[in-house]
Amino acid sequence: MEDTYEEELLNLSLAIVTDPGGEKNRKRKRRVNVCKPLNPSYEGCEGKIFKLLQVREEMLKLDHKRKGVVEDGKGLDLIHLLLITATSVDENNVNSALKNLTELYQSVSLMGDSVQRVVAYFADGLAARLLSRKSPFYDMIMKEPTTEEEFLAFTCLYRVSPYYQFAHFTANQAIIEAFEKEEEINNRALHVIDFDVSYGFQWPSLIQSLSEKASGGNPISLRLTGYGRSLEELQETETRLVSFAKGFCNLVFEFQGLLRGSKLINLRKKKNETVAVNLVFHLNTLNNILKISDTLKSVHSLKPSIVILVEQEGSRSPRSFLSRFMESLHYFAAMFDSLDDCLPLESAERLSIEKNHLGEEIKSMINCDKDEENNKSCPRYEKMETWKSRMESHGFEGTKLSSKCLIQAKLLLKIRTHYCPLQCEGEINGGFRDFERDEGKAISLVWQDRCLLTASAWQCV
């Protein structure tokens, strides 16, 4: 049956191959810092900041639960208080900010409903923004998860939510179709250039799909060039993917890892191979518009058969702090709410996802413009129309996604979530859904009325 076949293609075991064995949990020696906890202009508030941190500590206790859903109207009250607090922080009204943050911490719980949980992490971000970077309290609030915790959180989110799977399966289907169009001339060779390979979860499903096409003793060659954040991450990703690919004797798999920032001239290419460029959640991480432009020019110079673009949907460019805060609040409120559709309230997996993945993104977003010494910058989350204009101005044109891409997306949502099909444009039925955009050249993943991400395919003009 076709449905059974499609369901097997979407089997999550293809995406999560092995655990991150070999990942080392680095422990850093903490230095005692006797600097004042607040910025210099905030002197005289030390007592209030200590009280705030005590209240926060109570909130963090897992047995300190404010059970169930926030009473009618209380959720809006929490959001309203959070926005007042953000305004106070932006205006350096420290006394008001500390008072409101204390009230927020007394009203939320990491084991509460989605409103409480998302407000808790935004409150953390605001508290850190008040503090001096030299303060040990700043480090306490902004403490990053270990490599192992970060991997586990990503793995959990990948497994329980359609968020990353939607992006990856849509991209892979478009890549396979580009390969099929050139089978007569590409010597059955596909070269994928992934600008952010991360843990490599996108590629096992592509490996299996290509292997199924290669039946009959005529192997297919898949070369994956992946850019990563560190040599350790690249080595672990290579080990994971090579191990998985060994199970498919009719596929020749090769991985080339490059550190982010390496020049494209280092790429090894085969004659007539189909080249696909994968820009999945990458362009928004670049520091400025110039770097985005340089990347797109480099991609165009490769003359790829297809370019896949997937980005979070939003308008969180580095404008004013409050506008960035508001847009991010809308986005993450939808993400936290969607997790309630995937996991029970007291799930340890949900806590891991929110604490070590989504919560980290929230706190980083709020404080990215004060983290210049670590060379961090605010991600550029744009509307689809902005990315479309940018791609077209760099010599790309959108290509219509096939019916297979759309059917696969709908099937994924049906299998992985309480899928709510879109009856007509603009009708809100709740839950995850997908919808076509730009005359079928793009497809978006939506939670209720909030667009979370958009995938599109491009070709060189």
Task: Give an overview in words.
This protein is an alpha/beta fold. Helices cover 46% and strands 14% of the residues. The chain has 15 helices and 9 strands. Strands 1, 2, 3, 4, 5, 6, 7, 8 and 9 form a 9-stranded mixed beta sheet that branches. Strand 8 and strand 9 form a beta hairpin. The two termini are 39 Å apart.
Structural class: alpha/beta
Report, as a whole number of angstroms, the end-to-end distance: 39 Å
Which percent band covers the strand fraction?
5-15%
Helix content: 40-55%
Q: Helix and strand string, N-terminal first?
A: HHHHHHHHEHEHEEHEHHHEHEEE
Largest sheet: 9 strands, mixed
Question: How many helical elements?
Answer: 15
Task: Name the shape in a single word.
Answer: elongated
Cα Rg: 23 Å
Mean pLDDT: 85
Count of beta strands = 9
Uncertain regions spanning at least 5 consecutive residues: 4-36, 421-429
How do the strands and helices of this protein lay out in sequence?
Layout: H1 2-9, H2 46-60, H3 74-90, H4 94-107, H5 114-130, H6 136-141, H7 147-160, H8 162-181, E1 189-194, H9 203-213, E2 220-228, H10 231-245, E3 251-259, E4 274-280, H11 289-301, E5 306-312, H12 321-339, H13 348-367, H14 384-393, E6 396-399, H15 403-416, E7 432-437, E8 442-447, E9 450-460
Helix pairs in contact: 2-4, 3-4, 3-5, 3-12, 4-5, 5-12, 5-13, 7-8, 7-13, 8-9, 8-15, 12-13
